[in-house]
Design goal:
The protein is of the alpha+beta class and about 150 residues long. The chain has a single domain, classed as CBS-domain. Helices cover about 35% and strands about 20% of the residues. The strands form two sheets. Strands 1-2-3-4 form a four-stranded mixed sheet. It has a two-stranded antiparallel sheet with strand order 5-6. It is globular, with a radius of gyration of 18 Å. The mean pLDDT is about 90.
């Protein structure tokens, strides 16, 4: 399964925030979009809508913990992750999971060349795997997995 398959199923709605918006605005957008991260875009550059970062709930919590509530009035650049890890529509789910694990992130922007075409989250990947899995023999029964005995 590829990223493009996931985007086709979920749609290409992308939560974004402009680079000059405040952290408080980003928080409100996170709530409104019911997501854990927003792609930060610079709409002022001559090349158009350029992805410049990602701001996540974790970034904001770190900022609040380290610097206090004053960060809410600062631009998102104060707490966003610069140089975001991105993937391409043709990347495999396995590759995206490896990137998420390697960089300890839960959301990855999807770029087709320089164009932002979507965002893939851990939840999207789990849903795709569940949809692709064969159904349980008894849907009412919870799956059980053997546990190795303690030595």
């Amino acid at each position: 399964m590829r990223v493009e398959d996931i985007l086709r199923r979920k749609g290409t709605r992308i939560g974004t925030v402009r680079i000059n918006e405040t952290v408080e605005t980003a928080l409100r957008l996170l709530k409104a979009e019911n997501t854990g991260a927003l792609v930060v875009k610079d709409v002022c550059r001559t090349e158009g809508n350029t992805v410049v970062g990602v701001i996540s709930e974790r970034d904001i919590v770190r900022g609040l913990t380290d610097r206090g509530p004053g960060i809410l009035s600062l631009p998102v650049t104060a707490v966003m992750s610069n140089h975001p890890v991105c993937c391409a529509p043709g990347d495999s789910v396995r590759r995206v999971l490896q990137l998420m694990d390697e960089h300890t992130i839960r959301h990855i922007p999807v770029l087709d060349g320089a164009s932002l075409v979507g965002v893939v989250s851990v939840r999207d990947l789990i849903k795709a795997q569940l949809d692709a899995a064969p159904p349980d023999a008894d849907p009412g029964e919870a799956a059980s997995y053997p546990v190795a005995a303690a030595q």
